[in-house]
């Protein structure tokens, strides 16, 4: 489907070649040259990051933006960093990923019934996109979600992901973010979709115990339940 960011499609090319935000372009490319010492021998991707997963996904995972030395290095969301370690272990336990780790873009990771993406497609300094940068990227997210016709749940990682989803669906009054909070959205044709809040899988949350693996498992268990995914016995 052209509206999905499948490699080779127009949307994929448009995203990975985007240079609309000078600050983000300068940062992502500088990081790719200066590198982190642990990855000094790696060839950094250093470009915008598209979403990936199952085009028939019923669950969408919406994060903030690529990590400077994670996705900005490997070329795939939540790949090659500690946040991804947590995320894909949980998705594997939930039956949404074929393996519990994501090390590099060609490591064999496959998602089933799930799509992983971000509200902003370039790694931002200090993980903080500006409102203008956020809004500039919103058109990419809109086209991406339009292609996921079977999606019934969006797992929103952190306040930024949650707010991006609220803006996308133009929800007013604005619901308050919380871990495990559920917001129902009615789409055209009477289709119902649920926004499911989850603390972000950042080290700030996982190292401090604000987000535990049990809490993350509970979110994905609920997402599977809400999505109507039926697993063979």
Question: How is this fold's topology laid out?
Answer:
Elements: H1 10-16, H2 22-34, E1 52-53, E2 59-63, H3 71-74, H4 82-93, E3 114-118, H5 131-146, E4 153-157, H6 158-168, E5 182-186, E6 192-198, H7 203-206, H8 213-227
Parallel strand pairs: 2-3, 2-4, 4-6
Antiparallel strand pairs: 1-3, 5-6
Would you write up a description of this structure?
The protein has 233 residues and is of the alpha/beta class. The chain has eight helices and six strands; from the N terminus they run H-H-E-E-H-H-E-H-E-H-E-E-H-H. Helix 4 crosses helix 8 (213-227). 44% of the residues are buried. It has a six-stranded mixed β-sheet with strand order 1-3-2-4-6-5. The radius of gyration is 17 Å and the shape is globular. Strand 5 (182-186) and strand 6 form a beta hairpin. It has one domain: Uracil-DNA Glycosylase, subunit E, CATH 3.40.470.10. It has helices at 10-16, 22-34, 71-74, 82-93, 131-146, 158-168, 203-206, 213-227; strands at residues 52-53, 59-63, 114-118, 153-157, 182-186, 192-198.
- For the residues shown, what is the average pLDDT? 94
Strand order of the largest sheet: 1-3-2-4-6-5
CATH fold description: Uracil-DNA Glycosylase, subunit E
Q: In this structure, how is the largest beta sheet organized?
A: 6 strands, mixed
Overall CATH class: Alpha Beta
Query: Low-confidence spans: pLDDT under 50, at least 5 residues?
Result: none
Number of helices: 8
Radius of gyration from CA coordinates? 17 Å
What structural class do the secondary elements suggest? alpha/beta
Question: Which CATH-level-2 architecture?
Answer: 3-Layer(aba) Sandwich
Annotation, overall tally of beta strands:
6
Strand content: 5-15%
Distance between the termini: 31 Å
Residue share in helices? 25-40%
Q: So, the CATH homologous superfamily?
A: Uracil-DNA glycosylase-like domain
Query: Secondary-structure element order, as H and E?
Result: HHEEHHEHEHEEHH
Overall body shape:
globular
What is the total number of structural domains? 1
């Amino acid at each position: 489907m052209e509206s999905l960011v499948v490699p080779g499609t127009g949307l994929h090319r448009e995203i990975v070649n985007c240079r609309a935000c000078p600050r983000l372009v300068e940062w992502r490319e500088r990081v790719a040259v200066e590198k982190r010492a642990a990855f000094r021998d790696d060839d950094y991707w250093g470009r915008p990051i598209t979403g990936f997963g199952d085009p028939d996904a019923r669950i969408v995972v919406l994060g903030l933006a690529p990590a400077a030395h994670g996705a900005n290095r490997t070329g795939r969301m939540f790949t090659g960093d500690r946040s991804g370690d947590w995320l894909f272990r949980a998705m594997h336990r939930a039956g949404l990923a074929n393996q519990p780790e994501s090390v590099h873009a060609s490591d064999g990771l496959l998602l089933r019934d799930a799509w992983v993406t971000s509200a902003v497609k370039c790694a931002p300094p200090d993980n903080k996109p500006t409102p203008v940068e956020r809004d500039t990227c919103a058109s990419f997210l809109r086209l991406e979600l339009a292609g996921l016709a079977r999606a019934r749940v969006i797992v929103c990682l952190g306040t930024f992901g949650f707010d991006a989803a609220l803006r996308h669906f133009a929800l007013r009054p604005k619901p308050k973010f919380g871990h495990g909070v559920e917001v129902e959205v009615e789409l055209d044709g009477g289709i119902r979709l649920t926004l499911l809040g989850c603390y972000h899988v950042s080290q700030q949350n996982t190292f401090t115990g604000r987000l535990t693996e049990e809490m993350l498992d509970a979110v994905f268990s609920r997402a599977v339940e809400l999505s109507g995914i039926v697993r063979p016995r």
